[in-house]
Write a structure and sequence with these properties.
Blueprint lengths: L29 H6 L10 H9 L10 H19 L4 E10 L6 E14 L4 E4 L4 E3 L3 E6 L1
Antiparallel strand pairs: 1-2, 1-5, 2-3, 3-4
Length: about 140
Amino acid sequence: MFKKDESWKKYSDIIDLPHHVSTKHPHMSSEDRAAQFSPFAALTGHEAAIKETARITDEFVEPDADKKQELDEKLQLIRMALADNKTAKVQMIFFKPDGKKSGGSYETITGNIKKIDEYNGLIVFDDKTTVKIEKVIDILEV
């Protein structure tokens, strides 16, 4: 065990005792003991925050007056079709604001319009998707 020099004398009362085994606590495996000393992640969520900041969003570009007039005419045709109980299947390009930061993305949806909610300024599709009228960029009939 110890090299027999003078330093062993201060431990002479415990040197030959058997290894202590607790009667209260179960034996811990070497892996579990090693896990106690594993690195601590002090900046939890920091990497996700960096990725979110680096994520690129588009800015909304307001349609010009001619495009707004064209969209109003197309929406009026859809209103008339809905009033006649006809379906209005369209492909619509719109701007969807980002929920976490400024800007957003341009998206396309294809489906049947269920109604146009003038009070809230929304277009409601059969699948309950809603699009703000003011964020519509283009409407194409399918």
